[in-house]
Design a protein that fits this description.
heterodimer, A: about 160 residues, alpha+beta, Sufe protein. Chain: A, 3 strands, B: about 400 residues, alpha/beta, Aspartate Aminotransferase, domain 1, Aspartate Aminotransferase, domain 2, seven-stranded mixed sheet, four-stranded antiparallel sheet, 14 helices, globular
């Protein structure tokens, strides 16, 4: 059982939990969302800033304030590492890859080239009750990014 | 240890699930009984026997099985009436759970603008949201008792909160999060003094305290079956006969009527008025067996056992560095649910590590978000004992918490 527990709580996850990257709410931003996990009460407030890149929108910044378990906190930290600075299309594709990993019931082999530290969450997929912890900030980011894009179009 | 049930080994053998092991071969240490209790063999057997030998719909089947099933269902009502020391069996209404019983009251008690309903900050969401909805519908005002820093009801504002416009005072007997045992007689007296209905949520009290509705003097009391060693899907609303007969129906349907024409219907008296449709028959039968089982052991003895285990748990938990217990620290003032925080480790992560060692607890807001907010915490970890809990299981919890601290390197 401790092997399973260690596969859930990889060192990478515990490191991100203790020293989260890009944490805190920052300006500028085009959209801000607040997502909660109603069963456990975990919460995240997340802002997205989109910048103009040579080939369309780029994720300029993702900032957040969150309360929750180690999985949800580490997941937010890894998310920001992966998407900040990337073209929005590529970031959305990373999102889809992470979602596939988390919904794969532990059967999906993670791609380290795409997910980097995110591969540490492969073990979480084997704990159905914790999948939504890992996805909280990712869902918030997608929501905020979609809103920021809509905002950009209507301006 | 003083106060433990004398035949604890024998009692544990009544609960087959306590024998099982979990992944990795570790034995189960079940400390989540405030969430749901485990079921003794007699409850399981009674339900299986009913399904195997006596299954039929009740009160409408004109055959021998129908008579047997009706007899079993109605005799469960007698057992619950006796469990509560109710003056009449007709005062016992079977519902789906305590939540449905509270919603029944919040839906049928007439409220209007200018009226108010008084609840408390330590309620389970079921005793908050149902009254919020009732007040939104009717224009009545929702008020609540706050909490003191040590997790008790703050009664200093009681005379201002409960006034001549109060129609309902609804409160929990034992908090599911803080464990606090509330002064129910005092609250009932305050409601009575202004002519308001008193509504007691006994979901956490019925499993572990003698509940005597005549001694308490309340108007309504609810509890749920699955926390008193019975099955899920069955709860109880007890109410004074004259009050139940005054309330309008909740659900319309079969078995709650006197007569029906296409233009209008007249309604049966309580309890059938509130039991529309085919009820959870085998669940009621199982609940009857469960309350008989508890009464046979004795609620006074169960209460002493819970207090002894809770005192031992409070002592053990406070030996864990960085651990803070929420709620009263005096075991005689509280029930057998102890919520706590551990510095540096989130409740979900605590529960996950404990689970890997077979220790089952609850983590989260325990459907009491306002009570958590009052103490400035988002969520907590809760251990809850019952009549089958041993001191050795508390030791296993405490040991696992020490392990949790070292696992997350906060030690």
């Amino acid at each position: 059982m401790s092997t399973d527990l260690d596969s859930l709580y990889q060192e990478i996850i515990l490191d991100h939990y203790k020293n989260p990257h890009h944490k805190g709410l920052r300006d500028p931003f085009e959209s801000e969302v607040h997502h909660v996990n109603p069963t456990c009460g975990d919460e995240v407030t997340l802002r997205v800033h989109l910048a103009d890149g040579p080939d369309g929108s780029v994720v300029g910044d993702v900032s957040y304030d969150a309360v929750g378990c180690s999985i949800s906190q580490a997941s937010a930290s890894v998310l920001t590492d992966l998407v900040i600075g990337k073209p929005v299309d590529e970031a959305m594709s990373i999102h889809a890859t992470f979602l596939e990993l988390m919904q794969g019931k532990g059967q999906v082999e993670p791609d380290e080239d795409v997910l980097e530290d995110g591969i540490a969450f492969a073990g979480v997929a084997k704990f159905p009750a914790r999948v939504k912890c890992a996805l909280l900030s990712w869902m918030a980011w997608k929501d905020a990014t979609t809103q920021a894009q809509t905002e950009g179009e209507t301006r | 240890m003083d106060g433990l049930l004398p035949d604890l080994d024998v009692i544990r053998k009544d609960f087959p699930i306590l024998e099982r092991t979990l992944a990795g071969g570790v034995p189960l240490v079940y400390l989540d009984s405030a969430n749901t209790s485990q079921k003794p063999q007699v409850v399981i057997d009674t339900m299986v026997d009913h399904l195997e030998r006596h299954n039929a719909n009740i009160a409408r089947a004109m055959h021998q099985l129908g008579a047997e099933s009706t007899e079993a269902y109605e005799s469960a009502r007698d057992k619950v009436a006796s469990f509560l020391n109710a003056p009449s069996r007709n005062e016992v209404v079977f519902t789906k759970n305590a939540t449905e019983a509270l919603n029944l009251l919040a839906r049928t008690i007439e409220l209007g603008p200018g009226d108010n309903v008084v609840i408390t900050e330590m309620e389970h969401h079921s005793n908050i949201v149902s009254w919020q909805l009732a007040c939104e519908r009717s224009g009545a005002e929702l008020r609540w008792f706050g909490l003191t820093d040590d997790g008790r009801l703050d009664l200093t504002e009681a005379d201002r909160l409960v006034d001549e416009n109060t129609k309902v005072v609804a409160f929990t007997w034992v908090s599911n999060m803080l464990g606090t045992i509330n002064p129910v007689e005092d609250l009932v007296a305050r409601a009575r003094a202004v002519g308001a209905y008193s509504v007691i949520d006994a979901s956490q009290a019925a499993p572990q305290l003698p509940v005597d509705v005549q001694a308490v003097g309340c108007d309504f009391l609810v509890f749920t079956g699955h926390k008193v060693c019975g099955p899920t899907g069955i709860g109880v609303l007890w109410g004074r006969q004259e009050l139940l007969d005054e309330l309008p129906p909740f659900h319309g349907g079969g078995e709650m009527i006197e007569t029906v024409t296409m233009a209008r219907s007249t309604y049966a008296r309580a309890p059938h008025r509130f039991e529309a449709g085919t009820p959870p028959i085998v669940e009621a039968v199982g609940l009857g067996a469960a309350v008989d089982y508890l009464s046979h052991i004795g609620l006074e003895a169960i209460h002493r056992h819970e207090q002894a285990i809770t005192a031992y748990a409070l002592e053990g938990l406070q030996s864990v560095p960085g651990l803070t217990v929420l709620g009263p620290l005096d075991a005689t003032q509280r029930g057998g649910a102890v919520s706590f925080e551990l510095d540096g480790v989130h409740p979900h992560d605590i529960a996950q590590v404990l689970d890997s060692r077979g220790v089952a607890v609850r983590a989260g807001h325990h459907c009491a978000k306002p009570a958590h907010a009052r103490f400035g915490v988002q969520s907590s970890t809760r251990m809850s004992s019952y009549l089958y809990t041993t001191p050795a299981e508390v030791d296993a919890l405490v040991e696992a918490l020490h392990h949790t601290r070292s696992y997350f390197k906060v030690a």
